[in-house]
């Protein structure tokens, strides 16, 4: 290798490393800025009552009902999306290789992955919330179930894509070895392949959960909100993003401070989920 070519490659490598460090630094800077801004603006509201009182008490209240509602809605969304997403991703990875339907489904899944959440919320409002008036004497009934379905539609393409990619990363020699021993395809898929890729699949589920935790728009048309604590998914249900959205528009400075505190709690929750997901995936890669 000539000295000039070596020098050119070394310069390109240094430039790439510098740009990468700058990009990383910018990302960490804005992350720290967001955390500091939400913490500084909402620090005075980060009290025990934020986690114990409900929003019905306004300035003297907290966000307990919104936090409980968000946990229920997110659980419903993941509960609906996970089995469907894992099954669809498994079919794409293992059974659609010789089918023209596979690429078409992957393309449609990518479209759903980039679809605006407000559009999905309106879709669920049309097919779930509006028809409820025929069952409730002409009154439209918002519900936690409708909110869970809307969140499931957002989480579904993430889980499908992750499951598909994780199963395709499993070495083909593992499949060949199992099939040569006479293992049926369904048993190979459920007991060997999915077990091998389970860490990656769980990572995808956690990332999907982090993705839906901060969604506001679809919940405005489905779960709608509730100033009291509701554990019944058939009734309107409060959620942390929806309460933050409403409180930021309130003229009261105390209410705005509670909104900032809720934003900080939500940000830390999403950040924790993202870190857990990345740690789980890194542990899987290191183990492999």
UniProtKB/TrEMBL annotation:
Membrane topology term: Multi-pass membrane protein
Alphabetical list of PROSITE patterns matching this protein: ABC_TM1
Gene3D superfamilies, per database record: MetI-like
Domain ABC transmembrane type-1 span(s) in chain numbering: 67-277
Classification via InterPro entries: MetI-like, MetI-like_sf, Phosphate_PstA, Phosphate_transprt_permease
Protein's cellular compartments: Cell inner membrane; Cell membrane
Pfam families the record matches: BPD_transp_1
UniProt keywords, alphabetically: Cell membrane, Membrane, Phosphate transport, Transmembrane, Transmembrane helix, Transport
TM regions (residue ranges): 14-36, 71-95, 107-128, 140-160, 201-224, 258-281
Family: Belongs to the binding-protein-dependent transport system permease family. CysTW subfamily.
Protein name: Phosphate transport system permease protein PstA
Source organism per UniProt: Luteibacter jiangsuensis
Lineage: Bacteria, Pseudomonadati, Pseudomonadota, Gammaproteobacteria, Lysobacterales
Name of the gene: pstA
């Amino acid at each position: 290798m000539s000295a000039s070519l070596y020098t050119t490659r070394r310069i390109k490598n240094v430039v790439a490393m510098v740009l990468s460090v700058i990009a990383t630094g910018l990302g960490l800077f804005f992350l720290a800025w967001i955390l500091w801004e939400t913490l500084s603006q909402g620090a005075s509201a980060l009290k025990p009552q934020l986690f114990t009182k409900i929003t019905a008490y306004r300035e003297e209240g907290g966000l307990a009902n919104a936090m409980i509602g968000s946990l229920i809605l997110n659980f419903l969304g993941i509960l609906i999306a996970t089995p469907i997403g894992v099954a669809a991703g498994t079919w794409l990875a293992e059974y659609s290789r010789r089918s023209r339907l596979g690429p078409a489904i992957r393309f449609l899944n990518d479209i759903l992955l980039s679809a605006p959440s407000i559009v999905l919320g309106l879709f669920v409002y049309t097919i779930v919330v509006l028809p409820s008036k025929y069952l409730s004497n002409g009154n439209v009934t918002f519900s936690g179930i409708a909110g869970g379905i809307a969140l499931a539609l957002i989480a579904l393409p993430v889980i499908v894509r992750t499951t598909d990619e994780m199963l395709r990363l499993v070495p083909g020699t593992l499949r060949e070895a199992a099939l040569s021993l006479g293992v049926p395809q369904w048993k190979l898929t459920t007991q060997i392949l999915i077990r091998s890729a389970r860490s990656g699949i769980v990572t995808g589920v956690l990332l999907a959960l982090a993705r839906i935790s901060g969604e506001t728009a679809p919940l405005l048309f489905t779960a709608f909100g509730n100033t009291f604590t509701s554990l019944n998914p058939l009734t309107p249900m409060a959620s942390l993003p929806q309460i933050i959205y409403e409180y930021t528009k309130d003229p009261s400075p105390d209410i705005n401070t509670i909104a900032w505190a809720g934003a900080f709690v939500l940000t830390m929750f999403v950040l924790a989920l993202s870190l857990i997901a990345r740690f789980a995936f890194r542990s899987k890669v290191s183990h492999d």
